[in-house]
Every structure is written in C-alpha cells, then in structure tokens.
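Box 3.1 A note on notation
Throughout this textbook, protein chains are presented in two layers. The first layer is the amino acid sequence; the second is a token string describing backbone geometry. Keep the layers aligned when reading.
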Amino acid sequence: MLKIKIIFVLSLLISVTACSTREAGKQFAGSTEQRLVTYSINQIAEDFAKEPLEEITNQTIRLQSHFVIQNQVVDYANARIQNQLTETFGTKFVANDQLFETPTKYTLKLFYTSLGTDRDSAGFSLPIIDLAEPERSTSISILAVDMYHGISECNYVLIDTETNQVLKKGAVKARVRTDNFTTPIFSFPLSDID
C-alpha cells in the first residue's frame, strides 16, 4: 500500500512540474508584441543619450547597422537611434549613396543582438494536451508566471573613418515586460506598458 502511495505521489509530481517555454516573435502582428518591441527600442535609443559619444557632437557621420535579419524592425531601430543622436548630440547622418559627395569623419557601427520578443512561462501548471491538435494544448496554472518581454540589445563601435581606429565601444540593452502571475483563483499583472 505504501508503494502505491509513493508511486501516485511521484506520478503527480511528474505531471505537475515546473514548465518553461521560450518563443521568439516573428511577425509582430499583435499590438502588445509591437509595443513591447518598440518600447524596448525606444529605451535603448534613449540610453544612447547617456553614452560617452562626445566626438559626434555636431558632426556628420555614417551609420552602419548589422543584424541577423533585415526587416522593418531594424529600420525602425536605426531611425529611432538616429533621431536620438540628432536630439542629443546634434549629429547629422549621411546615406551610403551620398558618401562620395559628403565625406564623414566618423562611422558608427551598430551590431544588434536582439530586436524581438520572448515569451516564457515558469512555475507549476497542469498540462492539458489535445492529441488531435497539439497546438491547441493548454495548461492550468497552479502557481505560475507568464512572462512576455520585448528585448532590444545593441553593441556599438565608433570608428575614425580616416584612420580606421576604434574610438569607442559600448553596449545598450533594454527589457520591457508584461508579466502575469497566475493561480487557479486569481491573476496579478505586472507591466511596463500602458
């Protein structure tokens, strides 16, 4: 009888385990996902105002950005950072096709390591699996947190265009979150977005 109880308790513990999944957003179709990404980009752009980039004050520079994919999110991040640098340092930017007409003293290279969302769940939940349509499977949270974050990270390098010498290096990153702590009875949201 004791063995049956132990087996039952172990089976229950295995079925009610701490689950964690991670998923990166791909299409930015929903408003929450769009806001998480753009708010985190806005935050790293604002952090550029605090970086020691005095050399680019009132200078015309070239901006080069690099990311594993090229899409509208990268374009938005570039535009937002350019706008912040113009507001803070009075910097002007030259398009790549205008380099011969307007030489630049500096090149600012941006290496994005993240421009997207992560969804993560942690805690104790009881999975309910739909074998006919596994993508419709769900779970009942016993004590869990559902985390949905917008994450932007960027390493930058300021280069003297004439000497090809690295003048400054740095990194900016931001995480904007909308978390939801849940139990079977109530949930409690915590969010960085309105």
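The longest helix spans residues 31-48. Confidence is low (pLDDT under 50) at residues 9-25.
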